[in-house]
Design a protein that fits this description.
The chain is built from 10 helices and no strands. The chain is mainly α and 218 residues long.
Length: 218
């Protein structure tokens, strides 16, 4: 019996993953509210009842997709903040992570943005404390830079953090709607433009127009 647990557990995890991956495609293609659990089952090639074996509802499927990805981002931001690099470099690393997440899995990022973080009256409101965790961590990076005299103190760290993430999210939205080029070269250019757009307004500049040393562009 003991020998069977690992293979069975692995098979269950594979089925669960199959359903989640199918849900991403269906949500991205049809929209969360327009699709049914049966659509997810059809996309995954499994019986309708199997979806309910792993998830209590369509809502739980979306919750799971969001929390999985958001937790990975939160962990990454926390790790980046421990690095011995400038605040600008930290924000560049975070931007790269999010842009690359879209580059490698655009459907999932579309679902998270359209169906969760921008859904103010439903999932966005439900997950507001979790969403706010990212703002808090980014604000801590800004605060440290302000205390070091690198970033202006006239702009609150929380406002800067929300502006930073909002800028990235708006760029992702532009890609989702086909308003910006989608190629590797532009993805790299966009990373730098996002950071410069935000940090350019935060950098402390002396009377001669020089940016504080640790705020030097990456």
């Amino acid at each position: 019996m003991e020998r069977d647990r690992t293979p069975r557990s692995r098979a269950a995890q594979d089925k669960r993953r199959l359903i989640l991956d199918a849900a991403v495609r269906v949500f991205a293609r049809q929209g969360f509210h327009a699709c049914r659990v049966a659509d997810i089952a059809d996309e995954a090639g499994v019986a309708y009842g199997l979806v309910y074996h792993y998830f209590a509802s369509k809502d739980e499927v979306l919750d799971t997709l969001f929390l999985e990805r958001w937790d990975i981002m939160i962990e990454f931001i926390s790790e980046v903040d421990t690095r011995d690099i400038s605040a600008r470099e930290k924000l560049y690393a975070i931007t790269s992570f999010i842009v690359d997440s879209y580059r490698h899995d655009p459907d999932l990022m579309k679902v998270i943005i359209v169906e969760v973080t921008r859904a103010a009256n439903s999932f966005g409101q439900t997950h507001l404390p979790k969403i706010d965790e990212a703002y808090v961590l980014i604000a801590e990076i800004v605060t440290k830079a302000q205390n070091a005299g690198v970033f202006k103190t006239e702009i609150s760290a929380r406002f800067a953090a929300m502006t930073f993430y909002g800028t990235i999210e708006q760029v992702l939205t532009a890609w989702i709607f086909g308003l910006l080029p989608k190629d590797d070269e532009y993805y790299e250019i966009a990373k730098g433009m996002v950071v410069e757009t935000v940090c350019g307004g935060l950098d402390v500049v002396d009377a001669d127009g020089h940016v504080a040393a640790s705020g030097t562009p990456v």
